[in-house]
Amino acid sequence: MGLTEEFVKAQKEISADGYEMSFGEIINLYRDEELVINPNYQRLFRWDIKRQSRFIESILLSIPVPPIFVFQGDDGVWELIDGLQRISTILKFTGYLKDESGQVVEPSVLTKTNFLPSLEGKQWKPSPLYPDDGIGAALQLQIKRARLRVEILRRESDVNIKYEVFQRLNTGGAILEEQEVRNCTGYMLNPEFQDWIISLSENEDFRITTDQTKNALEKQYGVELVLRFLSFRLFQYRSSLDVHEYLDESLRFLASSDNFNYKGEAFVFDQTFSMLNRALGKDAFKKWNGIKFSGKFLMSVYEVVVSGVSKNLETLLTLSEEEQNQFVRAKAKSLWEDRVFQKNSGAGVRGTTRLLNLLPMAKDFFKYEN
Prior knowledge:
By secondary structure, the protein is α/β, with parallel strands linked by helices.
């Protein structure tokens, strides 16, 4: 298929429209449940009050606001797929935003900004004790009448377009991390699958062995590590993909599978990390310097160890726990003497090169032989 044919085909797969709306209209649509925000996205609303206040300031000063993107379902209801931070800021300030359980979130109280320092302590409505706390009717109207463009992806579009647009708009931005974007697209694809991999990331053996920081937990890094574990086992890596493209494609493949073995894969995951925790604990994915394990979590070690152990799990489970511990610990140490690992695990090695060379060697490296 040539470029012209590809262009025509892609155009047919996307049905889009767009027009300007006021924030007042957006608020009414949300209030009437004609604009919905997936509850799973709400946990990703994380602008602090300073950024929220700056956005309110921008609206009051008539600074242009970037468009939002919505997906129109079969029932005509719009699902917000890009613009969460901006729309949630308005809804929270005006007192309409609901949390994941459907309860109204406490309205925000603004802080001072560069051009409008008197926004400090201001609310949408005045409090009973302090009538001057409200922004006043005139500024309320200014906000409600301010306009932004709404880009609409209609239900006639290809089913993949919704999360394709979301990824392209958010990937690489400062608002969401790669895995946070992936979490949202996972929920668009298959909420059951996404909930399942998030539940795996809460496994105690997994958390201990991956030794994640508080910041990593907040950014959903553990969920990415679970996805990597499943991808290494179930989705063939291709050298034409960078690491994040590989994870994106793997997520689509796994979440869209009609006969995915949740029970079987959960068993492999649980047993793998239980074994690693017994043998190595928080040292499971750290560097062996010849005397002890030390330093931080290393992705190169994770890739080899979880792939190797999980793909040899059936044999390893026939051993006693003491034999498992001795074998896994010995392999974790000798890994640092392996030439393939040494060549492909350094700081200057690209992720694509690492995956291409380390994943194939992992199974044989952890093969148990009497």
